[in-house]
Design brief:
The chain is mainly α. The chain has one domain. Helices cover 53% and strands 3% of the residues. It has 13 helices and two strands; from the N terminus they run H-H-H-H-H-H-H-H-H-H-E-E-H-H-H. A two-stranded antiparallel sheet has the order 1-2.
Length: 331
């Protein structure tokens, strides 16, 4: 990008900041740039990303671990436990391994780390006075449990004919289109639920727990209050309306819950063997954790731009965000 952005005063506030302003999905930019749109979606589906990881996990779990859909028509502890383990084990592996690589083993030192600080210890703001233990507790005890509960409700509804379901190879075109549709739906749902959670009463009761994490790490992704988890996982309700395959339900869960492990890692890139291996961080959302009243949604849809809460990583955007925040809290 321009030299002006690299010399922008916002750069001095970060240990590492991307050299370009935060980009939003070019699909919503006019005039349409077909090349930019293709490159954007190729980075999701044709490269190693959290999206492709979610697809792989969904396929492996469905074919090797999940019971047949018809077996989930009755409420039984066996299949419910399988669903819970199918979420718990990947979440622990992804968050645990990433945390060890980045923060315990310091495998890439602080290369590409947004905030130079380490996770907080001996800090009374966190459960157990420890940021990592706090995040692990709320992610696993509340997050994985309520995520699994929501999926079990959908599977049971599918098995009993209360939710529209189909099995591959039925509706092959819709089977593949459902994956990008779920990404767009999740972006829409997240923006509006997240805006609601910043309403002062809800923020104080629930969302403040997640915002303890100004300097985020892998375990911060779904470290939330149970009320926030309940609201967050209402996104699964789409499967009660739109015809889905159980693989879509799995993909939806991994996209919503394992993607945040990486986007909250605190690092822009995964770096090992002296090479940048994969983009893992999300500076767009990192800005939200530092400045709070901006970037409520995702880069997939420009809700923040449309409603005036977009922060592109520049000093000018920080000045505007702080002014808006001051105005919000002095009304």
């Amino acid at each position: 990008m321009s030299e002006g952005f690299e010399q922008d005063p916002e750069a001095a506030r970060w240990h590492y900041r991307p050299s370009h302003p935060v980009a939003l999905n070019p699909f919503f930019k006019w005039p349409l740039d077909l090349g930019a749109i293709l490159r954007w979606y190729a980075s999701y589906w044709l490269a190693a990303s959290t999206t492709t990881l979610a697809v792989v996990l969904a396929l492996v779990v469905f074919y090797l671990f999940l019971p047949p859909l018809k077996a989930m028509g009755n409420v039984q502890i066996g299949w419910i436990l399988r669903v819970w383990l199918a979420n718990l084990i990947p979440h622990i592996l992804c968050a645990g391994l990433l945390h060890f690589w980045l923060y315990k083993w310091r495998g890439q030192e602080k290369r590409f780390k947004y905030d130079a600080r380490d996770p907080a210890k001996d800090n009374g703001s966190f459960t157990f006075r420890n940021q990592v233990f706090d995040n692990m507790f709320w992610s696993l005890a509340s997050g994985v449990t309520l995520w699994s509960f929501a999926q079990c409700l959908i599977y049971w509804s599918m098995a009993n004919g209360y939710a529209p379901a189909f099995l591959f190879p039925e509706h092959p075109v819709w089977f593949f289109l459902m994956f990008p549709f779920l990404i767009v739906w999740a972006s829409f749902h997240f923006y509006w639920i997240h805006r609601a959670l910043h309403w002062p009463p809800l923020y104080k009761v629930a969302h403040a727990l997640h915002h303890r994490n100004i300097n985020v790490g892998p375990w911060s992704g779904i470290s939330m209050h149970p009320l926030e988890h309940l609201l967050f996982y209402t996104n699964f309700a789409i499967h009660l309306i739109v015809p889905s395959h159980p693989i879509h339900v799995l993909f939806h869960g991994y996209m919503q819950s394992i993607h945040p492990v990486f986007s909250h890692s605190g690092f822009e890139q995964l770096y090992f063997a002296d090479k940048e291996r994969s983009k893992i961080g999300d500076f767009f959302h990192q800005l939200h954790h530092r400045y709070f009243e901006c970037n409520y949604g995702t880069v997939e849809m420009p809700w923040d731009r449309w409603f005036g809460s977009f922060h592109d990583g520049s000093g000018q955007a920080t000045v505007r965000t702080r002014a808006q925040k001051k105005q919000m809290y002095t009304r």
